[in-house]
Description:
- The protein has helices spanning about 35-40, 120-130, and strands at about 1-5, 10-15, 25-30, 40-45, 50-55, 60-65, 70-75, 85-90, 90-95, 100, 110-115, 135-140.
- It is mainly beta.
- It starts with a strand and ends with a strand.
- A hairpin with a 7-residue loop joins strand 7 (about 70-75) and strand 8.
- The protein has a single domain (about 1-140), classed as Metal Binding Protein, Guanine Nucleotide Exchange Factor, Chain A (Beta Complex).
- A seven-stranded mixed beta sheet has the order 6-7-8-9-4-3-11, covered by helices on one side.
- The chain has two helices and twelve strands; from the N terminus they run E-E-E-H-E-E-E-E-E-E-E-E-H-E.
- The model has no long low-confidence stretch (mean pLDDT about 95).
Amino acid sequence: MLIHGSCHCRNITFRLHWAPPSPQIPARACNCTFCVKHGGVWTSHPTAALEVFTQDATLVDRYSFATKTAEFHVCSRCGVVPLATSQIEGNLYAVVNVNTFDGIERSILQASPASFEGEDESARLERRRQKWIPDVKFFEM
């Protein structure tokens, strides 16, 4: 399944090649203050692939907090956060915000709360390596 998404002003757009056989998409509502305040509800799958396109890269801010092991890609024009990435041992992994999907039937999203409180850095990176999108490409338009 091919899923398109974007920030509000469409400076950041993406194509998510969703490969799992089930049309259901898990959506993790992280309870950290950043995700709550930005409406971050994340999905990923280790067989998915992500292509990210930016109209103006100078309008994309990258924000890291806490362990500094992930970067949230924030459009500085509209304030939306469509994705986060994590560089692990030379490989780039990503999650995408389901609230930035375009034209998806919301009933296929299987929302559940998520908390990563107390997870140490090595466990966090291993979880990302196993569950995040491992095929991530960026393009400037």
